[in-house]
Amino acid sequence: MATDLRPSRNGPQHPPAKAPPAAGRSLRSRLTRLDVKGAPYAFISPFYIIFAIFGAFPLVYTLWVSLHDWELASGTRKWVGFDNYKYLWSDADFWHATVNTVAIFVLSTVPQLLIALFIANALNRRMRVPTLFRIGMVAPLVTSTAAVAIVFTQMFDHDWGMINWALGLVGIDPIGWSTSRGWSWVAIATMVDWRWTGYNALIYLAAMQAIPKDLYEAASIDGASRIRQFWQITVPMLRPTIIFTTIIATIGGLQLFTEPVLFSVGTPNKMDGGPLHQFQTLTMYMYDNAFGHDRYGYGATIAWALFVMIILFSLINFLFVRRTGGTK
């Protein structure tokens, strides 16, 4: 007799067992979670990898070199500890170069940013062919630094320069631009200003175009002049941008190298910054010690001193931003 194996209708009903998830579906979900969580780190990793290779490692290695009496020609690798830093503190030539660097930085940065601010304000108004003038602001930046320095060196020549010729027309005696310490600062700062003023002007112009026009319309209705609108609306709204350009100009100004080197054309050693070191910057002094006198340990010490100076100036600017309300 055949037996009925079917379950009774009145008996307990059990849900059918679920099939185990497919291996492909599980792997796909894991890859999806990994993509969502790991993609941001993968996108930013090239910057940190390149920085670690070309930024962090040279910085740490330079610190290691600064603790040695390091010479390439003789192969000397003698540990001296902080002796290089002690000598740096009492090195008159180092402080002389520091004064030159800070003075040129101040003479170039302050006029540069002020002129750029006023140029950007003029370009922000309605004018004919504004694109042509805006492109003209970039022209000095794309010009070769060597060409700029050579032209300005000729202009500031003592005997045949155009600047002294123009001063002679109004009865002023020729100025020794390359022999006087103060005037050499002015000449080099002029080169820096001519090259970077347009760049900062375009940054200010982009920030000005983001300011709501309603603010100016309301100020005009209240009877505020354009000058008052500029100082009470434009400048306060540009505060974060002004701080940004100040920090960038600070970093570039303290690392000034090309302009003073090319300005010393005709001197036996261009890294001296003139016969009396009147415009020798810190980068020139560092280069002269490391590559000119084979004192790589002391050159690395100067490099680290310059790095600390840049950090201090950047911190001062950061604190100024917080104090003036540029950032929260």
From TrEMBL:
Location(s), subcellular: Cell membrane
A Pfam family: BPD_transp_1
Sorted UniProt keywords: Cell membrane, Membrane, Transmembrane, Transmembrane helix, Transport
Membrane topology: Multi-pass membrane protein
Region annotation (Disordered) ranges: 1-25
UniProt similarity note: Belongs to the binding-protein-dependent transport system permease family.
PANTHER family the record matches: ABC TRANSPORTER PERMEASE PROTEIN, INNER MEMBRANE ABC TRANSPORTER PERMEASE PROTEIN YCJO
Name of the protein in its database record: Sugar ABC transporter permease
Organism: Actinomadura violacea
Species classification: Bacteria, Bacillati, Actinomycetota, Actinomycetes, Streptosporangiales
